[in-house]
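Let's do one together. I've listed all components of the complex below, 522 residues spread over two lines.
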Amino acid sequence: MTQYKNSTRVICGAIAITAFILLWYFGTSGTQLGNIMPGPVKVFRSFARSFVVPIGKYTMLGHAAWSFTRVIVGFSIASALGVVIGLGMGWSRVITAIFKPIIEIIRPIPAIAWIPLAILWFGLGETTKYFIIFLAGFFNVTLNAYHGATSVDQTLVGAARMLGTKNNRLFFAVVLPSSIPYIFAGMQIAITTSWATVVAAEMVRSSEGIGWLIISGMEINDTTRIFTGIVAVGILGFIFATIMREVENRVCRWSKKSDI
Amino acid sequence: MKKEKFSYKYILISAGTILGLLLIWETATDVLRLIPAVALPSPVEVAKTLLLKMTDTAPDGATIPQHLATSLKVALSGYSIGVIVGVPLGIAMAWYPKFALFAQPLFDLIRPIPGIAWIPLMIIFFGIGLLSKAMVVFTAAFISCVVNSFWGIRQTRDVHLWVGQTFGAGNFQLLWNVAIPTALPMIFTGMRIALGVSWSGLVVAELLASTRGLGFMIQQCRGLYRPDVIIAGMIAIGFVGAVLSYLLSWVEKIFLKGRKES
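Okay, and this is what the predicted structure of the assembly comes out as:
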């Protein structure tokens, strides 16, 4: 298929984005829409200001740090446990038989639907948020690790066995490495889901974090603040996805998995 | 790992685990009363509530089928518009590179923003009725539809296109007969992801602002300390989500008949 030069792509992209911002600018300056929707200049100014002037208790960096911590804690627990259980399920059919039905029963319930129950269980504090984010990431990682461990090339396993590899070494030298690309694919999805979930959890119940920023804008009818929050959510989500992709590229450089 | 012949042993283990968990749950709540009922009601009580709520409007003003109808109406209207707009847009972006030059940067701008983040804005713009929630669901569904259709079309082999061109197929014929069939599995994957995202996006929207719907029900019952209704609601949400995704895979099977599972 046709490929364009990088310079052409950058120029066309710049034109498209400029056109969009101009449309936004003229659509909101002096029109009826301008009364309920802030223009790009106002949003940008408010975004820049939020780094210096606190909104609520913290500045933008403070809110970002709160959300970031919540995601990292929940996501790390989910990944660690998910990899162990997923690989275990791939390794032994007894473990599969134990965990698979439980996972399949709980998985269709969106993590966010646990919020009211989690609040009754753990109160309004941080534990609730960690628990929700854990749930958001856990199933993705587990099922991908499981899938990875079951799709190991049987020729490799056979070869290793024929050469006298013991179970223990077979796991660490053959099964684990060939599952890594799958595990990372699962973690990639999990971090995106976790990020969306932390925003949701903070919107439902919290007094700091990016999600709170957005919902507090709604409560005081300040659309500029909502837009500031949305911009921050977008930027941080982009950063999360980029970090995960970089880590994946480094760890799985040998894997020929096509990049999507 | 190893291919073993089908055996009842594993089914027994699975059934045993679930029964065991239910038994522990029941013993801890009803029999030994280790956990207070305001935190975790017993499974028997949850089942009773689930049955009762099918016809009873207490304590939140509507029965489960009524809540469900409201939620489904919102989810399906937003989701279908998301698919109808998102899939063609993704296809167009992949097939017409000139269009992609301008559309892709714009799409990349909104792509990292989860659909959920738009909820407060939609509520301010469109109120707390059907429209604002349908818009949230639409945004959530739209993004994964575009992404997956785009990559599906991009996977078309050049060789296939060349063969088509050699036999004199026009651009539109190539798209319709070569590229779209290649992309269909990816398009369906996108629709399946979109369904999950839409359903959970809807629940958040209902948790935040609504007057009816399953999300509204569980949020209300948190305030009323009725965990039995919350759990019954979660079961309903999970069950309906699973049914929807099952229906979609059924449609997918009809469309992709005769294809190998990837």
